[in-house]
Amino acid sequence: MSIAVFIFVLTAFLIVYVGGNYYIACRLFQWLSLLLPNINAKIFIGIFILIALSVILRFMPLPPGVKNVVNWAGAYWMGIFLYLLLFMLALDFVIFIGGIMQIIPFPIPQSIIFYKGLIAIMLAAVTVSYGLYNATQVKYVSYDVQTRESVLAKEIKIVLISDLHLEGLKSEQHFANIVQGVNRLQPDIVCIAGDIFNNGISSLPNPSEVMDMFKSIEARYGVYACLGNHDGGSEFDEMLRFLALSNVKLLNDEYTIVDDRFILIGRLDSSSIGGYGSLRRKNLADIMVQVDTNYPVIVMDHNPAHVEEYGNEIDLILSGHTHRGQLFPGRIITNAIFVVDYGHYQKDADSPHIIVTSGVCPWGTPMRVGSQNEIVSIILR
């Protein structure tokens, strides 16, 4: 991502976020004033500003104790903010239309204002509660993929996971459940399609415990991974060492021949947060020049924005990154941005199969609405 694009995206986010919080604060205070006529405006505004700022402050260097509180508040407020904003806007729109149609009188009666606020808060609370619950659940999804040339003497079971975002809220406990789920599927090979970490390993409470979890994954040909946009930065070298000690074979724009049966390629992500040190994403042609395409070729590429780079020399592409929008209506946006933001896709008979997973863990906020954590099983024939 160029600096200009980054500045534009950041500016747009701040405008929407600041404006949205101002709107929510006004509506909440309006409702609370009807419920609690003696509410102190200054105390309300102070508390609200602190909560709203937590989303931004969580990315700042803070003392560990403060950092934990800010992380918790910011993570939950992201989801609460979204659904308060959506439901308040929707109900304001309904009242606006009702006023135009002269169904609702003007000025708007206080009783309507009160129940409008109550309904918005209740709808947001129900949605957030569901999102918190859904983010703890894991679904199992399976696909059957036929290579263009039947060179495989025996089918291969690939288990695909992505977007672990380790060091996220409760991510270690969640990862233990993921490992158990992967092992139950008895895979031939496990592929991790990036975003293994969130920003590094320094904030993992128990790095050795996480390392042991990786080592406990059972797969005939082992565990392979590519890097995602969150797997870079100042702790990049430490992350590489951590994965090596965890028995995770990392492919950085490299390929390997697995059991003389198929070729697996792992790509560097093109938009790493903080960079991969001296490593840079190569052109596909520079990798493929040494690849024997008589074998089935599988590519792990974290971001599905790159799927159109690949031609008929590739059999299967494995991606993640999108989280399928994670929080509705996010999936509408990801579906518009990517050729395929989720599921199994093949443009035509001569094109590679593409499988994009919604990931095994949420990012940013521990909620999922309109998407799911999933472990993907792929039978390659």
Structure description:
The protein has 381 residues and is α/β, with parallel strands linked by helices. It folds into two domains: 3-134, no CATH class; 140-380, Purple Acid Phosphatase, chain A, domain 2, CATH 3.60.21. It contains nine helices and twelve strands. It has a six-stranded mixed sheet. α3 (64-100) crosses α4. It is elongated and about 75 Å long. 36% of the residues are buried.
TL;DR?
The protein is an alpha/beta fold and 381 residues long. 41% of the residues lie in helices and 15% in strands. The protein has a 6-stranded mixed β-sheet with strand order 1-12-2-3-4-5. Strands 6-7-8-9-11-10 form a 6-stranded mixed β-sheet, with no helix packed on it.
